[in-house]
Amino acid sequence: MNEREKLLDQYSGRVFKNRKDHIVQLEADGVPQEIAANSRSVPGLMINRGCCYAGCKGVVLGPLKDVVVLTHGPIGCGYYSWGTRRNKARSDSEGKSFIQYCFSTDLQEPDIVFGGEKKLKQAIQEIMEIFAPKCIMICSTCPVGLIGDDIHAVANWAKATYGIACVAYSCEGYKGVSQSAGHHIANNGLMKNIIGTSGAKRDKKFAVNMLGEYNIGGDGWEVERLLKLIGYEVVSIFTGDGSYEQIKNAHTANLNLVQCHRSINYIAEMMKKKYGIDWIKVNFIGIGETMRSLREMAVYFDDEGLRQRTEEVIAAELADIEETREAYRAKLHGHTAGIFVGGSRSHHYQNLLADFGIKTVIAGYEFAHRDDYEGREVLSGIKPDADSKNIEELTIEPDDQYYHLTLNKERFDALQQKIDIEKYEGMFRDMGNGTVTVDDFNHYETEKLIELFEPDIFYSGIKDKYMIQKSGTPSRQLHSYDYSGPYAGFRGAVNFARDTYMSIFTPAWKYLTPPWNTRPTLEGIIGGGENA
Amino acid sequence: MLDATPKKITERRALRVNPCKTCEPVGAMYAALGVHRCMPHSHGSQGCCSYHRTFLARHFKEPAIATTSSFTEGACVFGGGSNLKKAVKNVFDIYDPDVIAVHTTCLSETIGDDINTYIQQMEIPEGKIVVHANTPSYAGSHIVGFGNMMSGFIQYLAEKKAVSNGKIGIFPGFVNPGDMREMKRLAGLMHGDYIMFPDTSGVMDAPNKGHYEMYPKGGTTIEEIRALGSVEKIFALGELTTKAPAIKLKEKCDVDFAALPLPMGVEATDQYIMELSHFLHTEVPESIEEERGQLVDIMLDAHANFYQKTAAIYGDPDTVLGLTAFALELGMVPKYVLTGTKNREFTKKAEALLAKFGANDCKAVDNGDLFELHQWIKNDPVDILVGTTHGKYIAKAEDIPLVRAGFPILDRYVHSYMPIVGYRGAMRLLELIGNALMDRQDRDAADEDLELVM
Fold it and tell me: Which residues are registered as beta bridge partners of B404?
């Protein structure tokens, strides 16, 4: 039995039938394999997935600092997503940032029985009275969809009454099969209602949007620092330290940089159709990947000055971290890792681990789609199922006023051969040699994988962190970076190496076994001794 | 920090800002984790279960196991019965608990899933048990959910035997494992033969032994929960949380109960000890008297540091009442006393406490939120905040020291191991509050005023 078969061995009939397609063992490099993904989880398996609301409010909208994101529902959902996912944000010039707050309609039983629209309107009235934001976003939770509150009508009322932007998102938790549905719904809402509403024109040469960069642990700031050093202007960030004010102008960028493609590729595609803005897949996690991304951006813009500055910045940044990088590489080289997060990061971080000589032996995603494993080229072959059909696909037409192609078709086609323009590779590309990939991994499989592969460190989230640590394996959260970071770019890479080293080698690991379990504590002579 | 919070207080009827409560299911999940070899099961969307496990793991820094029915749109239309039945089968197959404790969510409550009927229809392996509790998130709070799950277990399992088992039952309330251990230690010193329910000690404070145990040794056993029906008396500590399940047990098995506050501070701990002594007919041992005497000794030694210091105390109803009582015993002025849970009884009890110590000009509210608390503080500040992690924004905004106590504490370690109940717990609280006040005094002192000896 290989590891995959051992993993599946415990499962009986129906669970086996379901899980077998979500677990792939790559025997050799480069052999394409199909994996089942973005499908319903099996009830009763202790999975790490969240819900549609978590993807919409928690991931995409939560970081917008000048927006009052109002959770319409009972108190829990808003409360749990308070404090965001460590999406750092600096307050505006007046010192205001709404992401320190939690706003909820705190629905009560009578609201569920008689409808919550009245309370929602009243809450918006109170928001306007107390906070007067320029933009309010309403996010529905499960019961709101069931009782049929028309939150979109309330949003229209708010727009008309207060002259503000107000967008409603029907992101009830039961929609789709994971957070992923919520990403899509959030993307749609931003595209329909916010992007391109400022009236600003495209008049800059090297202006970019950063898509799918949530500034966890300050990653976005680190990337922005590099981009500015080279000479790019960052128009907007979706959505880490992002704002309604910035995103309105997103249509004025020349190029979209896509970091977390899982959560934001919809906007990238729609902006291409509507505004003609090309997108490239970047990855600022990992030293090699950061260099590749910066260089591909320079290739895209085809400007000698930009190319030169790119090389200068890379050289300076590399020199800056060289000593620390070498020190950690020497300590970490040869270790093995397991990595199970999100829908893009498990791949991104493999490159960073490889920078320090750590081999990823087991990996998987919580809510990825097939293309995240197999590469974007499989997209056309994926048939939408009932759950994904429930999520609206917007029909996008080129914008009369703002549509403008940066590159002509010839140049675009030529570039496609050279760089990751409008495509991305899947995780499988970087795995192989008996490594195992698991989609929508669960508690049982996590335990079993650790037993089978004995990785030196396991990266995932807080729900399994302590279980893994109890099994004697160092574990770090890659959702929240265990309250550390940034991990992006060159400096971030050495932060990550430091944290990884620290967690593998912290002295406490030596104390797991008490000395009395391995050494005798009682000494004495049995029997009467010599003189007996 | 919190710069959008105006000083001017506006009446709010619909908008909740910076809540001081969360939803019922997470309380139910925590209660179920206090049952030995139990798998809490969340009957709703995946997000509920994921959020609750995350939340508990963040507070306890421990694995918080639970499974979900993984509702999709189809399940909302056709009912969650099929999902629940599949889930129960899979949970027993793969994770092999002795009992599955199902709690509902706002989703399954809104569509009206009848869990009891589902349970009767499902195939449950020999010797295994499934129980449930209704925990709609749009009613009550996590505190109510905790009580509801206790009632659920009692409803399904507690049995009245012809003969009493001679034990007492202790309901610890929504407290940390460290508090439960302290309550048990005191009961043990009083020679009580007790059943604690639920009991998360040994579960949510399990040691690291280098191998993972899904079901650590702690938790109330199923046999013990059954035996609750035949105990002599229930001591329902944290009465605003535990009185409802105590009444449930009274109704089902005719077991008497004493509804008591959490044993926090001197008087409430005295009350716990006196009740135990009275009921068990045992003398209070010297060791307890010694602890009490030590606490009072320290209170006298340090009283000058607490006199008329003003505090804002917020969190869960019983915990806040306990903290308030002890603050008053220390000579402090609990200027703002707030819980997010809607419970008029809380406000009455808090007001009675304040009146008893002659603390005028103090405000006590239930169903409040931290935005409101912050506005009060902006208008009239306090010397110290005592409560949960979410108050740290206010602490930073207003530069007020914060002592963490209650649930949740997401940003510190060790708290769940160390009691704040009993005389020893009061001693610890005194140290935490005293240190925070005195550190502040040191920090703010001019060089010439810095005291070496205090």
Answer: B387
